[in-house]
Amino acid sequence: MSGGEFAEKHYRLVDSRRAREALSYSWGFLVFEEPPESVHLARLLVGDSRPLVVVGDEVSRSFSQYYRWDVAVVDFRSRRVALEWSPAYPSAALECENPPSSISGSCVRALRRALAMWEKEGRVMVVVRGEEDLLSLPAILLCPDGGWVVYGNWRGFLSLIPCTPLFRGIARRLLLEFFKEAESPH
What we know:
By secondary structure, this protein is α/β, with parallel strands linked by helices. The protein has helices at residues 3-6, 17-24, 37-46, 57-66, 105-121, 136-142, 165-178, and strands spanning 10-13, 29-31, 52-55, 71-74, 77-78, 81-82, 92-98, 102-103, 124-130, 148-152, 158-162, 179-182.
């Protein structure tokens, strides 16, 4: 499954304990420090690599404040509570809808477009109506070699995923095993 193969489809998380356990498993490089130290450690790993994709409001806020990002995926909520913050000014903003426990074709298209735009446009923010939690998986699949995807684990630490064939293979496996094609809500 490549980015093109699931772009127009809507996928729903299989509702099982095994699926939730697998998706909450930590992978990539893990940083257990609080901001700003977590961002400084991430900066050592990421260096000048581009693009840097941050998924989630807390991560986006911390990277806006202490480092940088090229693509940010946010829903202006943290742990299902509205979160007010001022993001680093994006050059462009795209919107998509993503229901809970889903990966929508709408958001995959927005991610693909953001990753195509950032180099010419500068920072591109993808604003999600719904939940952005699971969008790190398509971000990893769509991110070109040399980039990074960073997201916050609900337990309070950062997961930094280098965009390599190995990690795209892991993301692909998770999508194939724990998601099923569903009818789009739109």
